[in-house]
Amino acid sequence: xxxxxxxxxxxxxxxxxxxxxxxxxxxxxxxxxxxxxxxxxxxxxxxxxxxxxxxxxxxxxxxxxxxxxxxxxxxxxxxxxxxxxxxxxxxxxxxxxxxxxxxxxxxxxxxxxxxxxxxxxxxxxxxxxxxxxxxxxxxxxxxxxxxxxxxxxxxxxxxxxxxxxxxxxxxxxxxxxxxxxxxxxxxxxxxxxxxxxxxxxxxxxxxxxxxxxxxxxxxxxxxxxxxxxxxxxxxxxxxxxxxxxxxxxxxxxxxxxxxxxxxxxxxxxxxxxxxxxxxxxxxxxxxxxxxxxxxxxxxxxxxxxxxxxxxxxxxxxxxxxxxxxxxxxxxxxxxxxxxxxxxxxxxxxxxxxxxxxxxxxxxxxxxxxxxxxxxxxxxxxxxxxxxxxxxxxxxxxxxxxxxxxxxxxxxxxxxxxxxxxxxxxxxxxxxxxxxxxxxxxxxxxx
Length: 446
Ligand SMILES: *Cc1c(COP(=O)(O)O)cnc(C)c1O
Hints:
alpha/beta; seven-stranded mixed sheet; Aspartate Aminotransferase, domain 2; 15 strands; four-stranded mixed sheet; binds pyridoxal-5'-phosphate; Aspartate Aminotransferase, domain 1
């Protein structure tokens, strides 16, 4: 390849392997990375990306990999999606930054209006914009504490909320997120979640167990907020048993506790609904969003009931780059794309292909313990044959096999035994099926 290919949907939609992966140019780049970038910044697949779009990522050696990760559920509309590219180009020529809290601009307000309209809840809402998911979560907690005048925050087993000090405390898993990075923020309490494959509880039973622990160990009088991911992401794509989330919401509403849904990974068409909360008609007081919001530009948001959001004093919320004009232009174009291209429907179609495919594999492969998820957020949990013992060795081997064959898959899970599927919603059925077959071959070969 002499010229760098342009990304976006016009990139040839094919899996193409022309060197070992990583190839020589990627290896050169990784050598430079190792000499220049802090080791703590690890990489899942050490290639040198030069273009991406549709359902593929192209590397400097000319390999074209099928993308089943979307940069961790970010590029739902695809990489370099046409509307996003146009909007970013137009904005960058007008102005790149003024700081919204110094001199405001329309894009920020238009995104807030759009979020207030789209996020579930038939009440007056307000939004505030930030840069990352963790920053949105931190601000949701700040706002809930300010509103209630209380300190305690309840999070769940298997939760992931980010890597900053407060959100590390809220995240469950030690390695790699927390180990040696403490002390952590106080007043964070963890209670059991709903994990149907492992706890065998109904939604009502799991909720009762969590609520009892909150009442006995934290005390409602101290509690500002309960925060939960509607489907737990890094923890293993754990879809709670039906009724669990509505029961937690009901309890929070009745006890004056701010109910926060962290839709950072599940939001924006990913699960086949615009937000995962739509699925069971769950309505949160406050919702955090990020990943899928802006086609790859860094943006996040906190959206919630006006009386809660407005409780913080002027100047109490913000940030130099928060709601940057290029990111908000990209968000408006991204949200328009989800709507214009009916991507919630597309997410459901993708989900049906994945579930059906692995249901077939599971018939004669008992190490596929569980197939779960919603829409284009799906996972398989791998176990030792004939048991529920987590099989992280197989999981790692399958991810490695897939990478060698030109398919990018991400793993997750408290026990490191979950393969997650988060393809861009712009992927074709053919590419998706080809990639799933590679994953199945990887299971069979190990
Ligand atoms: C990724 C993620 C975060 C953190 O987002 P960053 O942008 O990485 O800070 C928070 N919550 C959930 C549910 C996530 O998946």
